[in-house]
Amino acid sequence: MSEELNNKPNKANLLIEALPYIKEFHHKKIMIKYGGHAMIDEEAMNSTARDTVLLKYVGMEPIVVHGGGPEITRSMNKMGKEPRFIKGLRITDEETMDIVTMVLVGKISTEIVSKIGIHGGKASGISGKDSQLIVASKKAPHRITDEETGEEHEIDLGLVGQIDSLNTEIVQMFTDNDYIPVISPIGVDDNGNTLNLNADTVAGEVASKMNSEKLIILTDVPGVLKDPNDPKSLIKKIKVDEVDDLIKDGTISGGMIPKVETCVKAIEGGVKSAHIIDGRVKHSLLLEIFTTKGIGTMITL
Amino acid sequence: MSEELNNKPNKANLLIEALPYIKEFHHKKIMIKYGGHAMIDEEAMNSTARDTVLLKYVGMEPIVVHGGGPEITRSMNKMGKEPRFIKGLRITDEETMDIVTMVLVGKISTEIVSKIGIHGGKASGISGKDSQLIVASKKAPHRITDEETGEEHEIDLGLVGQIDSLNTEIVQMFTDNDYIPVISPIGVDDNGNTLNLNADTVAGEVASKMNSEKLIILTDVPGVLKDPNDPKSLIKKIKVDEVDDLIKDGTISGGMIPKVETCVKAIEGGVKSAHIIDGRVKHSLLLEIFTTKGIGTMITL
Amino acid sequence: MSEELNNKPNKANLLIEALPYIKEFHHKKIMIKYGGHAMIDEEAMNSTARDTVLLKYVGMEPIVVHGGGPEITRSMNKMGKEPRFIKGLRITDEETMDIVTMVLVGKISTEIVSKIGIHGGKASGISGKDSQLIVASKKAPHRITDEETGEEHEIDLGLVGQIDSLNTEIVQMFTDNDYIPVISPIGVDDNGNTLNLNADTVAGEVASKMNSEKLIILTDVPGVLKDPNDPKSLIKKIKVDEVDDLIKDGTISGGMIPKVETCVKAIEGGVKSAHIIDGRVKHSLLLEIFTTKGIGTMITL
Amino acid sequence: MSEELNNKPNKANLLIEALPYIKEFHHKKIMIKYGGHAMIDEEAMNSTARDTVLLKYVGMEPIVVHGGGPEITRSMNKMGKEPRFIKGLRITDEETMDIVTMVLVGKISTEIVSKIGIHGGKASGISGKDSQLIVASKKAPHRITDEETGEEHEIDLGLVGQIDSLNTEIVQMFTDNDYIPVISPIGVDDNGNTLNLNADTVAGEVASKMNSEKLIILTDVPGVLKDPNDPKSLIKKIKVDEVDDLIKDGTISGGMIPKVETCVKAIEGGVKSAHIIDGRVKHSLLLEIFTTKGIGTMITL
Amino acid sequence: MSEELNNKPNKANLLIEALPYIKEFHHKKIMIKYGGHAMIDEEAMNSTARDTVLLKYVGMEPIVVHGGGPEITRSMNKMGKEPRFIKGLRITDEETMDIVTMVLVGKISTEIVSKIGIHGGKASGISGKDSQLIVASKKAPHRITDEETGEEHEIDLGLVGQIDSLNTEIVQMFTDNDYIPVISPIGVDDNGNTLNLNADTVAGEVASKMNSEKLIILTDVPGVLKDPNDPKSLIKKIKVDEVDDLIKDGTISGGMIPKVETCVKAIEGGVKSAHIIDGRVKHSLLLEIFTTKGIGTMITL
Amino acid sequence: MSEELNNKPNKANLLIEALPYIKEFHHKKIMIKYGGHAMIDEEAMNSTARDTVLLKYVGMEPIVVHGGGPEITRSMNKMGKEPRFIKGLRITDEETMDIVTMVLVGKISTEIVSKIGIHGGKASGISGKDSQLIVASKKAPHRITDEETGEEHEIDLGLVGQIDSLNTEIVQMFTDNDYIPVISPIGVDDNGNTLNLNADTVAGEVASKMNSEKLIILTDVPGVLKDPNDPKSLIKKIKVDEVDDLIKDGTISGGMIPKVETCVKAIEGGVKSAHIIDGRVKHSLLLEIFTTKGIGTMITL
Hints:
homohexamer; alpha/beta; Carbamate kinase; transferase (chains A, B, C, D, E, F); cytoplasm (chains A, B, C, D, E, F); nucleotide-binding (chains A, B, C, D, E, F)
């Protein structure tokens, strides 16, 4: 028998190995937060989109929420507008909000939709403003204590919002009709104003509301690490009730805290498992879903 | 009987007067091209959105296509990018195309969606890239004859496209589920590139493909005028086979020519009537639909 | 701008004014009891039917119950049969019941159906006998005390019934298929006998069973009046728990008592509001539904 | 084995014998024209209704059209109105039309509906006015030649109509929802006027439009007889192309001519077979459908 | 009137007599256990199948479970394999199980399906292995006390199973699509092994799970007899709470005990009535369902 | 990065490589003829079943037809019945037909159904007798010329049939409800007799009738070979119009002729491609579908 034939069964074996995962997640909603490296360039976006389409074709129902911080900052710079942050939150005046919306909805979302289309999926972009998908309200101002004087003052974050309620009927319509919805993280308040939202939070809350099986957050780190300097120190599984201790002892720290908290909230809201994975690894999405060990950190009840 | 009571019947009478129009257009698709004054400011957009929602509530199925030239030019200026036109067509390099998309999809469309939401309608924005709604290809370069030398040369318009085919399944999904789709006039080519399209043309072609009853183009003129300087010289009705003569004798001229040609093509494609109306008149949409005479120019077979 | 154009916006404005009401009652069932002046002649019936069709076209689901006392009396006279009443209830022997049925089902209902058809609605007449819509039983005899002797005796009302149960499946089938059902107030007992029913009561009970939003009773008075001789003394709103006092102090008296009691029972059965309005005012139905103040008396929880 | 047991198998055998007919007509529409003896009294109506319900329960879709001449005449007499006929057609002035409608829709139809209900069927009465079921126009006046003078004059039949078109959507809605529709033979003209129609004709035309399998006309004769004085001379089967000869040679004569012509027209309109049967024979409907020989005259292609 | 006509009404009368039963069991599921004489030969099977098809055509939803002991024994003999039983249960080694499956699924079921097809029904055979319809597990070994020594030993029954759970989705799919499912009484365990099941038990449990109206067991005795030697001593009705006493006093004994217990369990599981009838009587199925007295023993709450 | 991680991307890459095939055959019917080695033992059947389930889970609609010659012969031997063949066709007397049915339907089909169930698919066995799926008639006797005498005589093949018509409604019901139908190749004639059919033929004809995308025949050879003794001489692709020449020149010979002819007929009946593949190669089904070159012979238009 030719060498070619000898090799082929391996390929088929791999498909067969994937079968239990395919069965387990058949007709299950998989919420994927696109962020970081996974959206960094043409090639990365193509790869992420292709993987998402594959999930759809093997019977899952992927839903995408995307971020876009770096691109927003780039566009602001181009328009001669200086970005300002406070504790990681972008201070958002009206002009900034306009730019945020244009970049998220008009640039990033249409690009993702386009990439999914190229790979054979049917996608459509929606923002939180579409049929009042995300109703939000302005966040309370940030309180800051002047370290020298001890005086407290407030810093208004501008048009930064928190989610009040979700009308996911439109998302359901898309998944029911075999579309992959791509959600931009902006909300609308009762007066029709646009508010800037945290994309991870949007992904988590929509995942809960839609009874998603999984919430997968694509990041630029391998996951939660015991030793932040050692990528091999990855913690593969965390139980929800271990999180507090891991925060206290500093294992989960910095920007990882809100991500893990979003995961915990999603799980408490009914999502079966939440995953923080490394978008820099090729096909990380597939590896996390289709292998026993996965490649990132999985948080469960 | 009190004066109040005496007045009230007038109101009810007006509703009753509207009944024949409501009946005639029940469950009929009405394609509305938003443009010009109708989108000029907060108040105008609110008014147009409110009228559109009313159409929905009395049983029609409005579909919106919007333009956005002035806003695009404004944004380009802000970004220090000089807009260039040739015969009314915007020369669109990649950077310009990015700005066009961001403004159309990310700014104008989300605003219209938001306004419709405020007035009680369910809207969702889609661009021609969503599930390959509008497949387009690059227009041939423009040929120009140097008046002095008589030499011909070509000017490449860049990413300006012409419509090749439409996949209106997504638009149908929206109207079937009681949504008002808001379409941004950009297309996607076979390689996933974005192309800039003429909004009137998009409105006309989608209207044909969706078997719309009416195509209504909101402009900043009263309609087709016999004497362009006399707004009272409005031509109320034009038959499709009269159009050629009206162009030849100069009655239809300038920017009105492509608009009328779009109307003619739509009617030949099955739309029952096309209307060019004055978006500056308050509630022009309702007046055109709900009064016998209408307020603009109606083109029919 | 021409005078004509100046006037037109008023018309559109009125449609826009109606929008909030249209939205509020979209897909809501509106039970309308036709009676009195609203059915008095060709013109009145046409007007009432046209208003009913309008409600249908702007998205409500009207259901009609009609009375017919005067017409029955007229037909009985024609046939040389003397009508007899006791406390407002028609004493109904078999021959009378035949006439009642023929007039209600065969004359009044077909006329209403016909008028609704002329104005573009799809209507169909049903009686309480159609697929056992209204199962009823004979009312107990009326007890009367002879004022002179103090003796009590009973007067048998004949085939006058009270409602035992409703099978509204057929009504639902009609509204689900965009028909306006027109219900004649006769019932059927367990042996298949026909029974004469009070039309207001039928309207109220069917409204409750069908989860109607509104019960509107068309009468020949402006509503509940503080001073029965002063039509300007109309009470616009009555709370259900104010009704007892208004009956005790005589404000609600005579024939108005059972009407108000029907309204109260309907509201307790889940109907949101009940309205007693003046069918003599043109378009009273529309004025009550589409204006803030309404024109009659509204009863609510 | 007991005598009782010995007898029982006969019963079961009969059910088994009926099986081929049940299968053949499963889900087939059977149009039944009620007339003559079958409606003559309480007992006859009960029997006819019970048979109709049986057809429904064994899977057929019966549709009923009823006549009512004798009852109309009786009611007219009661009201002191003299009935007048010309060549079998009732001259119908407006007052007569009112009586006709009241009797057909208000009396006969409600009684049939009631009887079907008692026997466990769901019925609902409709007339040709319900949602424009039967659109008709006035018949041309009758021309009569004075036998003495040879002069011709016209006699206006009044509100006697001929069918122009049918909107059977409502009938379909009923059969689709397991109702037995009971149709009264009156029509509506373009101005909403009621017109008196021949019940046989209505049955035939609705049967064609609804793609009925059978048209069964209940009469007071055994069927078409070779010798009108000998009930044993029944012709069991007639081919459509034999009809002309049978009329010419006088076998089919008098009131039988229009009945047979209605049958022929129905068959030409797609009905598989038409049956003229004797409503005086108990269960004639079942005997015609469930026995090989039938009991009346069957007309086929 | 001819003699023929005189006879015919009897036939129609019988259909009319059946009407109340037809109505009562319309759209009701009727579980029929085929066994004994009813399957003994070509003619008997034809008769049973024809009766089953009749039930389907008059609106019921029959489901068939069949046994097959004698046929299995015959086939085993043919293959030179000696059948062994212990207390009525077939000791089932692997080879025997193969034969059991082949006979039940491959011979008896296909024959029943074929017979139903010939008589105009749509049938399809399923076993408990189809889409895991019947999940079962091996029965515990039988304990036997040696009468002489008083020693206990166990006898392994082999592949004899008891039902653990049912997935009746496939049965529902068949009845919803107008098929008559024919179920062979074998089950599947968690490892995919086939297990031999008692057909009466399968019939009873599927009847409960499917909310059947009736469970009818065809046997070779008239039903439960007071005096087993006197077929006229049939007990027509037994209440569930009388069963214990009847077993204690020996009225119900031997092979009748498990049958009656299956009936009791089915009734406790929601089946309205269970019937043990004599398959040797022609049309016993119809006689039991369509006559007031029935022909066998009916067990109810 | 760990070695493990290095390997993983290969796995994901293979899934991604499969994507175009998954997309191409999404919701397409794939007819698979099980035969030969693929059914030879427990392990082979498990493997084939698992592959079939995978096809289902990645969105295809597999339909299975199985053969069973060797098993039938084995069972006949066990029962002391000598199998006889003429030109590859089994001479089938009634007793043989009984054994054939028992083995195909009762043994092989239930085993396949069971195996598919174990691997997570929902399967159900049907034979050509289920709701008259395959209506067949007896084949004409075989004519044989005595080589010595030159005399012709006929040999009756017994109950060997040819397909007359297919009622695939039941197959469609299964695929519509996400079941994998497993079809046994027996047919039913007009009298309800069972007929033995060629499994390849059944697969081909059902594939055509069901508009299958592919017909895949599992055999025990690599496909069509140029040199029958050299498995490396496989012909990968054959056009339908090349078949005649390949038969004439002896490339296609013996038992391969009817297989190829079945493929040709299927393609002429609308199947897009037919494949003869080697069931001895592990996962041959997946390799044929999911690799560009495939592993067997593909026949197309």
